RNA sequence: GGAGGGCUCGCAUAGCGGCCGAGUGCACCGGUCUUGAAAACCGGCAAGGGAAACCUUCGUGGGUUCAAAUCCCACGCCCUCCGCCA
C-alpha cells in the first residue's frame, strides 16, 4: 500500500502514477475524502473515550448518591462511545478498502504506456544463424521428444493441459540449473531457502496477489490456504510483523520452490510446449533493505539475472517494462527475454521488480531509523524459472542431429557435455 | 481424530474487575567506578496514531460492565499424551 502521508502532501504524484498505469485516477480523490472522514471519526471517538476513562476512574472512588449519579452519566457516555467506535471502525474499513486498490507509484524512468511500450535497454549475444548452419531448428517440444527429456502428452493425460513431465536429461537439466543457480546465489551472499508453497491468506494478501492477480492463484477452499505462484510470497511474508536489522546491509534470500499458476484467461496463448504451464520450479531472489538502497539493489538483481543467462550462453535482451504492464507492487520492472529461435522472438525468462516500501507496509515489516520505525523496501528477481530456461537452452544449443550442447557452466553439475538423442 | 496445558513489552515470568499500559529477572543501550574489562551501582528500554493533551494494542473476534490482561462465548496458534501416518 502507498504511504498516506504522500497522499495528503502530494496527491498529484499518485494521480499521475495511476494514470500512467491505466488505472482508476478517481480512487485518489475517493481515498483523500475517505481518509479525512476517517481521521475526523477517530478524533471524535478519542475525545469521548478520554472522557469515559476519567469518569470511570471517579466512579470507583465515589460513594452513595454521588456514585449513583456518576453511574448514570457514565452509562450515557458508554452509549456514545459505542456509537463513535463503530462509526470509526466503519470509516477505517472503507478507507482501507480504497487504499488497497491503489498501486505503487511508478518510477520516473519507467516508460509510460501499455504492454508494447517497453524500452529495450540492451541486447546481449547474437541469435544463431541456423540457415547458415544448414538446418532448420527444432522447437523444444520436438527436441524434448528426441532427447526423451520432456513429455507433454503424458503430462496432459495425467494432469491436464499445460502439464508436463521432465524425464531423464530433462530432469537432470533441472537439477543442474538449480544447483548452479543456488551456488551463484550463495556466492553473492544470499541465504538459500526452501519455503512452504501452501500459505495462509495474510501472506497472499500482504504480497498483493489477491488483487488483479487473484484469478491466477489456486485456492484450497477446504483449508483456506493458497498455492503460491512464486516463492516471493513465502519469502516476503517470512518477516511479516517483524522489525529487521538492515543497518549492516540488505537481507537476501534465494528461495527454491514449485510455483503454481492457474493461467486463467490465457487459453489461446503458448498452448504448445512448456512456456506457459500450471506448475514449475523456480529459484527466486528476494531482498529486504533500506528504502534508499532499493534502486542500487534492483540493479544488482538485474546483474545476477544477467550473470545466469550469460552462463547459459543464450542471446537475450533486457527490457524496461512499461507502466501499464507493472505489477501493482512494483515501481519499476526489468525483464530478461531469451531468444527463442523457432518463434523468432525474445520471450520473458526472468523478471525483477523494485517494490519499494509498498509490500512491507502491508506486511508490517520495518526497521529502526533515527526518526522512528519505518517500512523497509522489498525487491524480487527470478534467478531461474526452469521450464523457460530449458526451452532457451535446448533451442539455442541444438545441433542438426537433435543433440544439444550443454553450456559450460552446467557441465560439472550435469556430468555431460552433450545431450544425445535417446 | 481424542484428552489435557498454555498464549502478557526481544526472551522468561508476575498480575485481586478500578491504584495495570502493566511488576520482576535476563538481554540490550547510556553513565559512575577501572589502565582496560568483568562485577557492583545509577538511569533508560514494547508498538502504532497524534504538534500535544490524549487514544489504541496483554493470541484474534465477539459479549457482560460505568470500567476487562483479569469474567463469559467462539475461533486461531503452540506444547504434552493417545490414535493414525509419509
What fraction of residues sit in β-strands? 15-25%
Q: Name the CATH superfamily classification of the largest domain.
A: Bira Bifunctional Protein, Domain 2
Helix fraction bin: 40-55%
Contiguous runs where pLDDT drops below 50 for at least 5 residues? none
- CA-based shape: elongated
* CATH-scheme architecture of the largest domain: 2-Layer Sandwich
Trace the largest sheet across and list its strands.
1-11-12-13-16-10-9-4
End-to-end separation? 52 Å
- Output the CATH class name of the largest domain: Alpha Beta
- How can the largest sheet be summarized? 8 strands, mixed
Assembly state (oligomeric): single chain
CATH fold node name of the largest domain? BirA Bifunctional Protein, domain 2
How many domains? The number is: 2
**How many distinct helices?**
14
Radius of gyration: 27 Å
Per DSSP E runs of 2 or more residues, the count of β-strands stands at: 18
The average pLDDT value, as a whole number, equals: 92
> Structural class given helices, strands, pairing?
alpha+beta
Descriptive tags:
alpha+beta, 422 residues, single chain, BirA Bifunctional Protein, domain 2, 21% strand, Helix Hairpins, eight-stranded mixed sheet, RNA-binding
Task: Walk me through this protein's architecture.
This protein is an alpha+beta fold. The chain folds into two domains: about 5-100, Helix Hairpins; about 115-420, BirA Bifunctional Protein, domain 2 (2-Layer Sandwich), CATH 3.30.930. The chain is built from 14 helices and 18 strands. It has helices spanning about 5-10, 10-20, 25-60, 65-100, 130-135, 140-145, 150-160, 170-185, 200-205, 230-235, 295-310, 360-365, 385-395, 410-415, and strands at about 120-125, 150, 165, 190-195, 200, 220, 225, 245, 250-260, 280-290, 315-320, 330-340, 345-355, 365-370, 370-375, 375-385, 405, 420. The strands form five sheets. The chain has an eight-stranded mixed sheet. Helix 2 packs across helix 3 and helix 3 (about 25-60) runs antiparallel to helix 4 (about 65-100). The chain is elongated and about 105 Å long. It binds one RNA strand of 86 nucleotides through helix 3 and helix 4.
Amino acid at each position: 500500500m502507498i504511504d498516506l502521508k504522500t497522499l495528503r502532501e502530494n496527491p498529484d504524484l499518485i494521480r499521475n502514477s495511476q494514470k500512467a498505469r491505466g488505472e482508476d485516477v478517481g480512487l485518489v480523490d475517493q481515498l483523500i475524502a475517505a481518509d479525512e472522514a476517517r481521521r475526523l471519526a477517530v478524533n471524535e471517538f478519542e475525545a469521548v473515550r478520554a472522557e469515559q476513562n476519567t469518569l470511570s476512574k471517579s466512579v470507583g472512588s465515589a460513594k452513595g448518591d454521588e456514585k449513583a449519579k456518576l453511574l448514570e452519566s457514565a452509562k450515557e457516555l458508554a452509549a456514545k462511545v459505542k456509537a463513535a467506535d463503530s462509526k470509526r471502525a466503519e470509516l477505517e474499513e472503507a478507507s482501507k478498502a480504497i487504499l488497497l486498490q491503489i498501486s505503487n507509484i511508478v518510477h520516473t524512468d519507467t516508460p509510460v504506456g501499455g504492454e508494447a511500450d517497453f524500452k529495450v535497454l540492451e541486447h546481449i549475444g547474437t541469435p544463431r544463424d541456423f540457415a547458415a548452419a544448414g538446418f532448420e531448428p527444432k522447437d523444444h517440444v520436438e527436441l524434448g521428444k528426441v532427447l526423451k527429456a520432456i513429455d507433454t502428452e503424458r503430462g496432459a493425460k495425467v494432469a491436464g493441459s499445460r502439464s508436463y513431465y521432465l524425464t531423464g536429461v530433462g530432469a537432470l537439466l533441472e537439477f543442474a540449473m538449480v544447483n548452479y543457480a543456488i551456488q551463484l546465489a550463495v556466492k553473492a551472499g544470499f541465504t538459500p531457502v526452501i519455503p512452504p508453497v501452501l500459505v495462509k491468506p495474510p501472506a497472499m494478501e500482504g504480497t498483493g496477489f489477491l488483487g488483479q492477480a487473484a484469478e491466477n492463484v489456486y485456492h484450497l477452499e477446504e483449508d483456506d490456504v493458497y498455492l503460491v505462484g512464486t516463492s516471493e510470497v513465502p519469502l516476503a511474508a517470512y518477516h511479516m510483523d517483524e522489525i529487521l536489522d538492515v543497518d549492516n546491509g540488505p537481507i537476501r534470500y534465494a528461495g527454491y520452490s514449485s510455483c503454481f499458476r492457474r493461467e486463467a484467461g490465457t487459453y489461446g496463448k503458448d498452448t504448445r510446449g512448456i512456456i506457459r504451464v500450471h506448475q514449475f520450479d523456480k529459484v527466486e531472489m528476494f531482498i529486504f533493505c533500506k528504502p534508499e538502497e532499493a534502486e542500487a539493489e534492483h540493479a544488482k538483481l538485474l546483474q545476477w539475472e544477467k550473470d545466469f543467462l550469460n552462463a547459459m550462453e543464450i542471446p537475450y535482451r533486457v527490457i524496461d517494462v512499461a507502466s501499464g504492464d507493472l505489477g501493482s507492487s512494483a515501481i519499476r520492472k526489468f525483464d530478461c527475454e531469451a531468444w527463442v529461435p523457432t518463434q523468432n522472438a525474445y520471450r520473458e525468462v526472468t523478471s525483477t521488480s523494485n517494490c519499494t516500501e509498498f509490500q512491507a507496509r502491508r506486511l508490517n515489516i520495518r526497521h529502526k531509523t533515527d526518526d522512528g520505525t519505518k517500512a523497509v523496501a522489498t525487491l524480487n528477481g527470478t534467478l531461474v524459472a526452469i521450464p523457460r530456461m530449458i526451452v532457451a537452452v535446448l533451442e539455442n544449443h541444438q545441433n542438426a542431429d537433435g543433440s544439444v550442447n550443454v553450456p559450460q557452466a552446467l557441465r560439472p553439475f550435469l556430468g555431460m557435455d552433450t545431450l544425445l538423442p535417446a
